[in-house]
Amino acid sequence: MPFRNVTVVRWLLYSLAFLLCCLIQGLVMQHILLRGVFPFLYPAVVAVLAAQEGPFSGTAFGLVAGLVCDLTVDGPLPCFYTLLFPLVGLLAGLIAEGLVSAGFLCSLAATAAAFVLVDGARILLLLLSGLDDVSRALMLSLQETALTLVFVLPVHLLFAAIHRKCRDID
């Protein structure tokens, strides 16, 4: 199959996998409450895909995922996720290229870094708006990160299977 066709098929499959993750987030993850937090798959999906595809593709995908997330989830600011998820994609892609070789451990590291970035920005906004209890916000962020890291394995397996299948076709 010509390169262009493989690329179109790969990104179509990634898009379908992302939509599946969006459905799971909305229908299932919202109901898994542990100590007041639930898993937040969107940053994990961006980080895992960027770890597979690299910083440029991760940044572009992060922009699209951020738009979808801003349209479906309440954020602390308008366009909050649209601004942050491209940075998540870039950071995760750079982690995969330079620090940890692509694989499950890279997906875990990239997802952890994604949550440091996203939750750090959330906490910064809360501080700027006059939040007094930073320790509570940090604890909730750590709980959300830990709960989401449990679900990185299925996300990683899904996107790695697409990546591997399209590489084999090429």
TrEMBL record:
<feature type="transmembrane region" description="Helical">
    <location>
        <begin position="103"/>
        <end position="125"/>
    </location>
</feature>
<feature type="transmembrane region" description="Helical">
    <location>
        <begin position="145"/>
        <end position="162"/>
    </location>
</feature>
<protein>
    <recommendedName>
        <fullName>Rod shape-determining protein MreD</fullName>
    </recommendedName>
</protein>
<keyword id="KW-1133">Transmembrane helix</keyword>
<feature type="transmembrane region" description="Helical">
    <location>
        <begin position="12"/>
        <end position="33"/>
    </location>
</feature>
<keyword id="KW-0472">Membrane</keyword>
<keyword id="KW-0812">Transmembrane</keyword>
<feature type="transmembrane region" description="Helical">
    <location>
        <begin position="80"/>
        <end position="96"/>
    </location>
</feature>
